[in-house]
């Protein structure tokens, strides 16, 4: 049987005709399978559900558990099945995303399949795997689901945001703050233009490079903390095994030996009591850092306090790691059992690290103290200590004494970190440190967040939310004013005119339109830049205070919008002859109701849709807008405009040659048509319409009528002057 053929894959990077979120739209040709729905292929449903039993959770059109399975029994086609299989493969790989659609086109056997794409590369792989799985089930051939999911899971682990960064992005999303991934790593922009902030895991654009360098120098950190009265363990840098022992004798046993500039507890040896232990620890610690520090051993458990913006956001405690003998297994075999705990692993998603003796010299030293090796077989029931301070992953946030939290916050402030992981050792975190000779041992930049998100015991903490609240004030959404413009005619002129008026208002504006990419009045790139890529570059620019984007139908259909929501959405008109058959859009009505409406769908609740009252297809979009609607019309008596104004709402129109802004029966004269150069003295009707749309859009942004007047009356003259200068230069 012929394989399902992929005809086209469209990566929709932003809001599109299907969903507000990024998605992949694949056009498939199922060929002769059009005549073979699922209910007439022998054994198909049984094979599919045995491979993917979790498909029972897919509700499909029934809206209830098992809904998709019911569709399989009734009979459905490969496009629809592939949609659900692709989504489930992504879900099993750790990339949940429930949105999917499958729709017939006007060509028999050709379907559009759309699935949510949190990462394009992973979703592409899932689509191909989904097709192969469906074909294997149809043809009764073997398919290795486990290997496929494992391959996709590896892609998710290597390509997608780590859980620490993802929790911050998710918290921003809950606040409706947009995000843009800036690299293949964990560098992410939150917000747009001049309102943006940047994060890299738990570091932000407020994290000082100097502070980060200080935090890596443990000895310098201790010196600074001590000067501010923060309790620290006494100690010093040493330069040889003999010097390490001398320092230990001066400080008093037991001691800790550790690298002065390593992170994540690597090469840290605690509770050392003999010269042999100290000298052995020195050599191992030197392999992990550039120098070695010997300091007083503090009794108690290690704790990690997460300080965000000067406040305690979460706290976790570590505990010793033991194995318990069974009289038969070696310590190495017992450790293998410990490592089977699903919480242990090397990936960032694992809150606990595996115990691997080859890379845990502290554990090997601990075994030597007990007269044991990895091959020793401890008696049944005997507890063998491996690490005195194991993974810090037990939540104790609610137990932290206020003075301890204040001391940790002071330590972060002294080092200069806006977000810090403060490590301290204490027997009881609910008591002040000075009562128990507790002390702060490290202050870390870029702390991991997983221990607080997925503690091995206790309550997960909303640390991503704490970081977002640190970066953005409660009323701050990270958004700049965005004006999106679509329609059949006039988009470029309106976009340039709106950008010019915003520029006059004092904002540095970015413009991506059919004439090019502009920053302020400077043309940065010539040619058609009414596309996702150019608009995306504008949103990345930290100098941009407002943005104007032209969005053509092809761009919306093939790329999606570059922004998730906008302050103002303009729809100019829909040409009755418009269609895009190559995208299965056969007439103007489909263009309006499926494509152009996208611009209105993304208007913010406190935003405005600017719509043509004299175009029925455009005027009908008013009901789709979450925000306000301002109609514009050349004819002040247009029925839609008249009814709109009767309701006390806003409109822009022409009466007796004057451009009028009206709110109900209150009117403001903006200009005279004959004074606006691009209208040709009022003779060019379509340009009058363009001016009205621009006036409405800039009014929606709160720009005054005087500034709008200046913008529309200067716009044509500036172009004429530029052309005159070019002609003079050519004839000189």
Automatic annotation (TrEMBL):
Q: Which UniProt keywords apply?
A: ATP-binding, Ligase, Nucleotide-binding
Q: What range(s) does the ATP-grasp domain occupy?
A: 222-472
Gene3D superfamilies assigned to the protein according to its UniProt record, in alphabetical order: ATP-grasp fold, B domain, Mur-like, catalytic domain
Give a yes or no for keyword tRNA processing in this entry.
no
InterPro entries, alphabetized: ATP-grasp, CPAse_ATP-bd, Cya_phycin_syn, Cyanophycin_syn_N, Mur-like_cat_sf, Mur_ligase_cen
Question: What PANTHER family does this protein's entry cite?
Answer: CYANOPHYCIN SYNTHETASE, MUR LIGASE FAMILY MEMBER
The protein in question is named Cyanophycin synthetase
Species source reads Herbaspirillum hiltneri N3
Lineage runs: Bacteria, Pseudomonadati, Pseudomonadota, Betaproteobacteria, Burkholderiales
């Amino acid at each position: 049987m012929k394989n399902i053929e992929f005809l086209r894959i469209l990566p929709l990077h932003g809001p599109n005709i299907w969903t507000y979120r990024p998605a992949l739209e694949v056009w498939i040709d199922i060929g002769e399978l059009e005549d073979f729905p699922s209910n007439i292929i022998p054994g198909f449903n049984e094979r599919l559900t045995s491979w993917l039993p979790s498909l029972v959770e897919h509700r499909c059109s029934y809206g209830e558990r098992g809904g998709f399975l019911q569709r399989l029994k009734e009979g459905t086609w490969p496009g629809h099945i592939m949609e659900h299989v692709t989504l489930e493969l992504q879900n099993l790989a750790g990339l949940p995303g429930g949105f999917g659609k499958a729709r017939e086109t006007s060509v028999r056997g050709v379907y559009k399949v759309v699935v949510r794409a949190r990462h394009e590369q992973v979703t592409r792989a899932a689509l191909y795997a989904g097709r192969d799985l469906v074909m294997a089930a149809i043809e009764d051939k073997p398919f290795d689901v486990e290997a496929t999911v494992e391959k996709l899971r590896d892609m998710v682990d290597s390509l997608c945001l780590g859980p620490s960064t993802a929790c911050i992005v998710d918290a921003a999303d809950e606040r409706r703050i947009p995000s843009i991934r800036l690299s293949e790593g964990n560098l992410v922009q939150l917000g747009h233009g001049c309102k943006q902030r940047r994060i890299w895991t738990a570091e932000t654009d407020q994290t000082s490079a100097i502070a980060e360098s200080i935090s890596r120098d443990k000895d310098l950190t201790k010196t600074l903390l001590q000067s501010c009265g923060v309790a620290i363990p006494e100690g010093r840098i040493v330069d040889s095994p003999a010097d390490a022992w001398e320092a230990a004798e001066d400080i008093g046993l037991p001691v800790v030996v550790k690298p002065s500039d390593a992170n994540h507890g690597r090469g840290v040896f605690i509770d050392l009591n003999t010269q042999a232990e100290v000298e052995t620890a020195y050599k191992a610690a030197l392999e992990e850092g550039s120098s070695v520090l010997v300091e007083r051993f503090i009794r108690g458990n290690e704790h990690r306090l997460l300080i965000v913006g000067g406040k305690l956001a979460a706290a976790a405690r570590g505990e010793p790691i033991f194995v318990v003998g069974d009289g038969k297994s070696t310590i190495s075999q017992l450790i293998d059992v410990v490592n089977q705990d699903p919480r242990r692993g090397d990936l960032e998603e694992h809150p606990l690290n595996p115990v691997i003796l080859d890379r845990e010299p502290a554990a090997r030293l601990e075994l030597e103290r007990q007269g044991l090796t990895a091959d020793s077989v401890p008696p049944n029931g005997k507890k063998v200590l491996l690490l005195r301070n194991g993974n810090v992953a037990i939540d104790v946030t609610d137990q932290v004494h206020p003075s301890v939290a204040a001391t940790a916050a002071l330590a972060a402030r002294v080092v200069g970190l806006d977000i810090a992981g403060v490590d301290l050792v204490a027997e009881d975190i609910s008591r002040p440190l000075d009562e128990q000779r507790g002390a702060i041992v490290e202050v870390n930049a870029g702390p991991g967040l997983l221990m607080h998100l997925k503690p091995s015991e206790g309550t997960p903490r909303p640390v991503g939310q704490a970081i977002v609240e640190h970066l953005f004030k409660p009323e701050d959404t990270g958004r700049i004013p965005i004006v999106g413009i679509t329609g059949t005619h006039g988009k470029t002129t309106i976009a340039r005119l709106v950008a010019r008026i915003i520029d006059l208002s004092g904002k540095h504006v970015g413009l991506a339109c059919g004439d090019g990419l502009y920053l302020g009045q400077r043309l940065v790139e010539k040619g058609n830049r009414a596309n996702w890529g150019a608009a995306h570059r504008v949103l990345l620019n930290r100098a941009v205070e407002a943005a104007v984007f032209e969005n053509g139908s092809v761009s919306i259909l093939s790329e999606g919008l570059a922004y998730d929501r906008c302050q103002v959405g303009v729809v100019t008109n829909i040409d009755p002859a418009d269609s895009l058959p190559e995208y299965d859009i056969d007439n103007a009505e489909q263009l309006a109701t499926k494509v152009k409406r996208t611009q209105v769908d993304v208007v913010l609740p406190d935003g405005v849709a600017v719509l043509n009252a004299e175009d029925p297809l455009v005027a009908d979009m008013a009901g789709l807008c979450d925000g306000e609607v301002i109609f514009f019309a050349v004819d002040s008596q247009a029925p839609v405009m008249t009814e709109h104004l009767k309701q006390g709402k806003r409109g822009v129109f022409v009466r007796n040659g004057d451009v009028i802004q009206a709110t109900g029966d209150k009117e403001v004269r903006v200009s005279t048509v004959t004074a606006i150069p691009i209208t040709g003295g009022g003779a060019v009707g379509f340009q009058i319409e363009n001016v009205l749309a621009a006036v409405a859009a800039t009014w929606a942004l709160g720009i005054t009528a005087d500034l709008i007047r200046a913008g529309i009356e200067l716009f044509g003259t500036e172009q004429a002057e530029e052309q005159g200068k070019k002609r003079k230069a050519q004839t000189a």
